[in-house]
Amino acid sequence: MGVRRSMMSGCAAVVWSLAAAAGAQAQAPRVVAMTGTDAMKYSVTAIEAKPGEKITVKLTGQGAIPKVAMAHNFVLLAAKTDANAFATAGAMSRPTDFIPPAMKDKVLAATKLAGNGETVEVTFDAPKVPGVYDFICTFPGHFAAGMKGTLTVK
Ligand SMILES: [Cu+2]
Predict the structure, then answer these.
(1) CA–CA dist 23, 39 (Å, integer)
(2) pLDDT one-digit tens code per residue, 90-136
(3) How far apart are the C-alpha atoms of 83 and 63, rounded to whole Å?
(4) In this structure, what DSSP letter does residue 127 have?
(5) How far is the CA of 20 from the centre of ligand 1 (A)?
(6) Whether the predicted pLDDT of 56 surpasses 50
(7) Cα separation, 41 vs 72, whole angstroms
């Protein structure tokens, strides 16, 4: 009886750990890796996601210019945010990585700044509302130079 009981509980433990492993796999974020270059461009400018999907964006700075003059971030903006106004206001905000404090409620996700050879990342849940969301680099001048992309939720 004692043996039978321990066999059964062993079986239950196996089932439990399989279920736990499957659960962990379902929750692992999808990684989107991209670079930001001295040409002020992202290597990935279009991301598609399911509503609420967990995503990790990894951004690597790739170039030769020192970080003080050339760095990149990934800032995902709320729907209907004026990205140009956001970037313009942010250019004055070096202490906050060029994210304008007055508009930080528009930030859905943001990395720190990556200089040449550095990698930064952020994990977030994609918006639940289908639509097109802008992401931009807030380093001064980069958005204007075309350092932007879209996250499409559908
Ligand atoms: Cu940049």
Answers:
(1) 41
(2) 999 999 999 999 999 999 999 999 999 999 999 999 999 999 999 99
(3) 25
(4) P
(5) 40
(6) yes
(7) 9
77 strand-pairing partners: 107
Q: In the block, which residue shows the tokens 């379902």?
A: 26
Tell me, in angstroms, the distance from the centre of ligand 1 to residue 129's CA: 27
Instruction: List the Cα angle 96/57/145 in 5-degree steps.
Output: 60
Centre of ligand 1 from the C-alpha of residue 104, in Å: 18
Token representation of residue 91? 């250019």
Would you put residue 90 in left (φ > 0), alpha (ψ -120 to 50) or beta? alpha
Q: Tell me, in angstroms, the distance from the centre of ligand 1 to residue 97's CA.
A: 11
C-alpha of residue 54 to centroid of ligand 1, in Å = 24
